[in-house]
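2.7 Reproducibility. Because tokenized structures are sensitive to small changes in the input, we list the exact sequence used for Ferric enterobactin transport ATP-binding protein FepC, including any N-terminal residues retained from the expression construct. No trimming or masking was applied before prediction.
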Amino acid sequence: MNTRLHGTGLTLGYDRRVIAEDLDVAVPDGSFTVIVGPNACGKSTLLRALARVLRPKAGELVLDGAALATWPARRLARTLGLLAQSSIAPDGITVADLVARGRYPHQGLLRQWSAEDERVVAGSMAATGVADLAGREVDELSGGQRQRVWIAMALAQQTPILLLDEPTTYLDIAHQIEVLDLCAALHEQGRTVVAVLHDLNHAARYATHLIAMRGGRIVAEGAPGEVVTAALVREVFGLACRVIDDPETGTPLVVPAARRRA
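Resulting structure tokens (single pass, no recycling of outputs):
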């Protein structure tokens, strides 16, 4: 398996609290990798470490053969894009101005704002359905609208690797599918996409590589058709279920067991 981004022997946590220990992870190049698991299992912590937002307590993360910790910030920002779980926009900033911030890693002393930057920002807003909100202030928008604006900013960064922490948060079902379809299209265009998702059926439908976590460890990983079984769902989520073929895609579809009636 070819991988630009991987980690070995990782211990991850906050202050004295350890979330994961002796963790090995590899993101296949060109994959749509989805990390799933119950609440507080370490999914977002792992993603934050892959984005260099969180420094491992032990172990090493490597990108393109060099320790992630040694990468210059601007160069890293042109390679890894991150949509964090909770993002706060500056007061009074408009949608267009926030999305334009995704172009900052491409600026420099000899390269200022260009027609290409304008094209990328407009295309990112169109792709996420926020073009008609360009002049609105971000803090006026609904939660779902704000989420799509943050995704647009990540797209405008135009990185070959895109990390998304729960990108469907606040979105209704139609917009969830739109965002995941967009992620799938980006993957098909050659980007490596890594996302944390809560919905196992969405993960099974869209992922090309699935990482299932529980209690700070990786329980299983691989193609969804190989990984998503009733036994795995019971082990990871404590849920009795059947796994059938999705009638639309043929991917695994988890059907929870019916509630027993008295």
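The radius of gyration is 19 Å.
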